[in-house]
# Entry
Amino acid sequence: MIDDPYAALGVERGASAEDIRKAYKRRARESHPDLNPGDTGAETRFKAASTAYDLLKDPDKRARFDRGEIDASGQERPERRFYREYAEGPEATYHTSRGFEDIDLGDVFSDLFGQRGRARQAGTGGGFALRGQDLQFGLEIGFLDAVFGASKRIVLPGGGPLEVTIPQGVNDGQTIRLRGKGAPGMGEGPPGDALVTITVAPHPLFRRVGDDIEIELPISLDEAVLGAKVEAPTIEGPVKLTVPKGASSGQVLRLRGRGVKRGEARGEQRVRLRIVAPPAIEPELEAFFRSWRETHAYDPRKGMGK
# Structure
């Protein structure tokens, strides 16, 4: 768990939202485990940056952290145990034997906790009920776990485990509410809820836009000119893709029904082509293009700026 989200991203406390976003992208690139094989500390740095960004990208959470109301994981700092101090402290005798029998604890705790605290009448006595505090957690999951759904475990402040079911197609920044899994209530009050905010780790190949998936696919010069059947990765495994003759860099090919599924609807996958020259230009290839240029030259930039 990080102590200072600003330090985790390498920014000052007064940094702008854009500076924070840029710092997170830089940290994610530098420390992503898939891009740093053999670096045992990369995953730790990546998770710390993701947790920090999850808090600081939200203006409300950031302000609450700056005021000391929540910690770096987004969890509210423990509130004072007013009831215990009031009912069990040194002055407890005043509640029963010194003329204060008419004090309404429901009114007292309503003042302290708003609607969370109230008194219940049971026979001749009153039963105090205070709803438990909601607990906030941050959970980072993999890109494909967000696409297909998963089950993850988090650890509660007391050390106990809590299983979190990640729904299929969950979005980055989405909060999952687990009813009754928060802090226990006081007196006859029910427990609070656990609020789990999801951070989705970036993927080295796939990028999500809504329910669509985007990738960039390198192709060779001859594949672009002559067309070809090439293998393209998708979230469910590789598929054969037809590159048309005369393809250009930046051209987008669409794979219907290969995006994120939510309910009955499913997005598409967009494949953006990128022509890559061979690593070394052979003499035969150079001679061919010199000859071709003499009789077939054209200007792809014609008309730009007009």
Summary: Confidence is low (pLDDT under 50) at residues 79-112, 119-125. The longest strand covers residues 212-219.
